[in-house]
Write a structure and sequence with these properties.
Blueprint: H1 2-23, H2 26-49, H3 60-73, H4 82-104, H5 110-128, E1 139-140, E2 146-149, E3 153-156, H6 160-182, H7 185-195, H8 197-202, H9 207-233, E4 235-236, H10 243-256, H11 263-281, H12 285-299
Antiparallel strand pairs: 1-4, 2-3
Helix pairs in contact: 2-6, 2-9, 2-10, 2-11, 3-4, 3-9, 4-9, 6-9, 7-9, 10-11, 11-12
Amino acid sequence: MNIIFKNALLAALLVMLILLPVFGERFYIQFVSKILIMIIFVSSLNLLVGFTGLVSLGHAAFFGSSGYVLALFSPIGTSMNLFVALLASVLCVGALGAVFGALVLRTKGIFFIMATLALGEMLFYFLHDTAFAGGSDGIYIHDRPGFNLFDWWQLDLSNVSHFYYLALILVCLVLMLIKRIMNSPFGRVISGIRVNEHRTKALGYHTYKFKLVCFVIASMIAAISGFLAAVQFGVVNPEMVGWHASGHALMMVILGGKGSILGPVLGTTTLMLVEEIFQVATKHWQLLTGIVVVLVALFFPNGLAGLNFPKKRSET
């Protein structure tokens, strides 16, 4: 009965999300679109942190790089095909993820965290100090990608409703993809790496290769969110690759619950709603947001996704 109730609740939530552009105002459509974009980004980080045990402080490098790929590849005066632009962003960022992963995965623990932070900051200053990337001002995207279906229907991403539905579809696809990955033999191996990498090696698995593939997949998923963010705001800047963006996403992972498919959904939605409410209420909104996060971490160590699923203590 509990499963039936949860499925009914998820179905009702999905129906509400589908109907939002029909009844909602422009502000709420855009705000929920931001949440959907961040859910994809946080889910990609959760694939590393929650499922593989790799804590990264440089994950925003892939988020922001995707937007820069779109900005640099977009022709002036005309819009790119949506699928070509998205594929180019994902593949380019995947290549960057392979290079970064090949370097940082040779370290472990705190050294891995520091290595990801260092590479992310190197990319930040490279984009910040180079003219072709627009420097600190970034690059404006004047013509957003689009899609024309036989001159019968056109996807216009400058239309908030069209963009919202694209983001919603991509969120559903990403969550299904991650669930499929984790239920596959590959997913069981990376879960084993998180629990005990030495035992996984003893079973004959080349853990470095598995971690590298997972790192590349996570970077490519992050590229999807970065692509959407660049399209929504029409501009990219070095702040998108900064460490604070990675830290913000990491906080959402912890808040929602590591190693859970729905954890990033809950953590992202909760934190962004709390921030929005506190920003309206007071100028000290960051202090109040921090208090909320600390309280959740203290009283719900498994995150919001673990509220209804407390772990049974092993009997001795």
